[in-house]
Hints:
By secondary structure, this protein is mostly helical. It has helices at about 15-20, 25-40, 50-55, 65-75, 85-90, 135-145, 150-155, 165-170, 180-200, 205-220, 225-250, 255-270, 275-290, 295-305, 315-330, 335-345, 365-375, 380-395, 400-415, 420-435, 440-455, 460-470.
Amino acid sequence: MVTSSQSPRPPQPNLAFRQLRGQRSPAEFAAAVRRAAREIGERVSCDARYVGRVEAGEIRCPNYAYERVFLHMFPGRTLTDLGFAPRSSVRGRRAHAPEDAPPSGVAGPAYTAGETPGAYEPYDTQDPYETHDNHEESDVLRRAFMTSGGATMAAVSLGPLTLAFDAAAAERPVRRVGTSEAGALEEAVRSIRLLDDRHGADGLYRRAAAPLRAAYALLDAHTTRQTTAERLHSGAGELAISVGWLAHDSGRFDDARSHYAEALATARMTGDPGLEAHAFCNTAFLARDAGRPREAVRAAQAAQRVGRPLGSARLMSLLALREAGGWAGLADRTGCEQALARAQVLFERGHSDADPEWMSFYGEAELEGLEAQCWSTLGDWRRAARHAGRAAQLQDPHFTRNIALYTAELADDLARGGRPDEAAAAGMRVLDLLGEVQSSRIQTMLAGTARVLLPHRRASGVSAFLERHASLPRTA
């Protein structure tokens, strides 16, 4: 929303700021900003997009955190020396562009009038999660989370959370939360993951938002034990990642990015390296899928730095695969092969007690499937098809969505590798699973395969696959 006091003039490029950046790329300059912030104890979420918006004049005056960082970087200069408008000239503005909003379900920092919020970026989060809900609202959300068997029941039923309370109930004092709420939160995470394994994300994402809001409301409530508070924070962060994955798999990349950033901020606020590694892991995967391979590499490497002391070889193997996916996106075959080799060596060390619970999906099938995606990105269709086929054969039948995913990958690799009849047969197997699996990612892959196969419609089985695929209902 923009108040009437905002100037109607088009933005003027900030040439002074651009000159100060010099020969550094926007990403390199953003990294320097984040380093300078850490030097003075600030936390800003600067990325290349933010730098671009400043230089384009879209940000007329930075918020106070950015102001302190910029003046630290360029001592002796004022904001106007840096090309910004005087703060007095923009006082009263409150222009919250969609990309500047804090993660959904979380109240971000209250910006003083005249400040322009910075772009939200997951590698260096803002001061996390000062919620301003009153006690009554927090209590309502907490009871929404716990009502009718908690969020677990809501997720399992695939129905919306229901809440019946009257005015008198809202006036009751907030009770302390304890182990029962922490347990319900942890069970909600497990249930959502199990449902996603079988059915995919599309039917779950919106229904998972209510438990997530309630989970963060729980963090405002009083707890008697530090261990309970730690369980609540860890559970809320893991739930944010689970909901972020549902958004990711259903093609809502901006939502997923916000949820992962939410989890990362929670991890850093509580000093939880396991949660931080998980958030970076998923951020790397999202960046790869969203066409930001360099960000995928950086996020995967950050996950490895924070995850290495945890002592889980399987975790480090998965993180190496995330890095390999980024290198493949950059067309760096050497970097990709080195990361893949590292992932294989770490995987062969086997399971350990240090393996995170959320990694239950990561077995030999997933290793093969992620490697197939790397070779596919590099254009080695024959090798990609070989790994995708092995992934589909090795996958536990419980993971219906992954079987559909690996088979869709196989169909696409076969089609692009000049084997249309085999591709059509694999595509048919995916179509057989789509009645049970709802995943926009899989449907998008299958649509791409169909386009590749169009010139081969006379090949054995291809016409039948194309006709059946064309009859699928189109998702919004």
